[in-house]
Amino acid sequence: MSEFRNGVADVIRTLNEIGFDIGTYHISVWGALRIAIVVVLVLMFARLGSRLAKRLFRRIDSLDGGQQLLGEKIVSLLVWGIAILIGIDVLGISLTALTVFSGAFGLAIGFGLQ
After folding, report:
1. Radius of gyration over every alpha carbon of the chain, rounded to an integer in angstroms
2. Cα–Cα distance between 102 and 9 in angstroms, integer?
């Protein structure tokens, strides 16, 4: 098992060396592969969560069609939002800048709606 781990580490190291630098940022094959894997996993998780929410809301007979659709959409948006935030965090992108931008954007919309 240790040999397998060392082999995988060697492959990752080699893929990380293949690439180019832009300023202080290194763009490598491993980085692109990691981004692709995270994006695929986030999309799979979000689609699975949306489908599960749709099935669960369709089973609730006490809600009419409009309420079921509203519940599906709200849960689906929450699942997609959480999946995107998890993906951003896994990729190592700082969520602080996103938080500041979202706050400023919300404030601008609030003033605009007045």
Report:
1. 21
2. 38
Write down the residue that tokens 């190592």 correspond to.
92
Q: Which domain holds residue 29?
A: 2-98
| Token pair of 99 as six digits | 């938080």
Burial letters 80-94, b for 16+ CB under 10 A, else e: beebeeebeeeeeee
Please tell me the predicted confidence (pLDDT) of residue 48: 92
Residue 111 within a domain = no
Contact 19, 28 (CB under 8 A): yes
Q: Which two tokens stand for residue 12?
A: 């990752």
In a domain, 84, yes or no: yes
Could you give the 3-state DSSP secondary structure of residue 61?
coil
Total count of domains within the chain: 1
pLDDT over 70 at 1, yes or no: no
